[in-house]
Amino acid sequence: MMIPDNLLEEVVAPVTTHRTHTHIPIPTVTPDIPKVYHEYSTEVGHKTLWVVCILMGISSLAFYAMAMRVPVQKRLFHIVTAFITTTAFLSYYAMATGSGVSLHTTVIGTKLHVITEVVKRQVFWARYIDWTLTTPLLLLDLSLLAGLNGASILVIMFSDIVMILTGLFAALSHREGQSWGWYAFACLAYLNIVYQLGYKGRYAVANRDNKTKAFFGAISLFTLLLWTLYPIVWGVADGARKVNVDGEIIAYAILDILAKPVFGFWLLLTHDSMARTSPSIGGFWADGLSPEGTLRVGDLRGDD
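User: That's the sequence. What structure does it adopt?
Assistant: Structure tokens below.
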């Protein structure tokens, strides 16, 4: 049987199939671009810094003048308090002129290390230098007023320095978790200050006269209440960033005025009114080195 050539070709030829491709767009994964926030102070914050700077300067001059009106044996509180406002004056001058501030970046992300926000906020680091120098002096005023022993004074001043430095580390941390960890350490150090001043201080002042006891109770309570507001301001400003930079400046300005010039005038005016019962420091503080045992110029000459 002969098979026609055309039929053979149809049987032997390979079967070709054609597929129809439907062009459906393939979804692409585009990484989310983190939001960047810039937080700066305005003219309101700048003027506030200058106002506090001037007030600190005037208070310092007043405290030095008050020191000159009392005998040198009774000037310890005056000198320490004047140093507090003088340091604050220099700090606010630095911040007002832009020398004590820098732009700090905080990265906010998810647990999967996906960055969602980047916050660039002004941090006034000069403020922390101020606090590192002035708050131990302020605690020294209160400790001497209460009559705390040297060991307790050393502990309370060290706790204060730890509190301020850990607060600075919290402000300069680049991640929120790290920042709040340093903040927790600062709060623990502050609790020790409350214990030393509130408990041991009241125990030490119990042996003093009634007027001193009442005065220490009032001014120490005033100070601790003010100091409790500082970490609250930090938490809502630098920490959670619920308050803008101007609000942060104004809040700290009010607290600093109350904690330094107002505290200082209250302390010194009351101290001067209690001149008879206030402590008097002699020795090296008032008279310098004793002339006994010192070498005089005449002794260097020979017996010619």
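The first helix runs from residue 5 to 12.
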